Amino acid sequence: MKDRIEKDISIPNLLLGVLFWILTAGWIVLIFYYSSESGTDSTERSLSVLRYIKIVFGESIITDVILRKTAHVIEYSILTVFSFLAVRFTNKTSQIRSYAESPVKLVKSDNEMYIALSLWLSLLTAVTDEYHQLFVDGREGSIRDVLIDSIGIVIVLIIIRIIFTIYLRYLGRNEIRYD
Known about the structure:
By secondary structure, the protein is mainly α. It has one domain. 74% of the residues lie in helices and 0% in strands. The mean pLDDT is 90.
């Protein structure tokens, strides 16, 4: 049995899984690092980015608020991509231990499982980060910011779902569904 499991392990998927879990964890640390900045430091950082944008592009319609909210969407989009790929490659590491072999199926396909887990990880990070900001000088935690973070999360997951569907149609296959 041990030999069967060892032969079943996909080293490329294992390495990619580890890489994307490291990137996911690192990105979460980066999110929390920047949200640990005081309100004054955070404002100064966004104003310096605005000054740079104006130098490069001339007068701009981008305001501090638009820049900050766009940053929320982008940072959680990136987190969602990293976490989706981490879950996907982890599941693909072993066919014996994959979701397909699980006796209990909460969702109907592997791709839906990847989407659900990356959605929950990203949303949990957003909620925890906003809660954390309640304790940072000059910052505030906001449900509105969690909703803005959710925009980035959902957009990425919709794009992933569309790409997956197009890819399967290109291959002439249907998604494997569990009943």
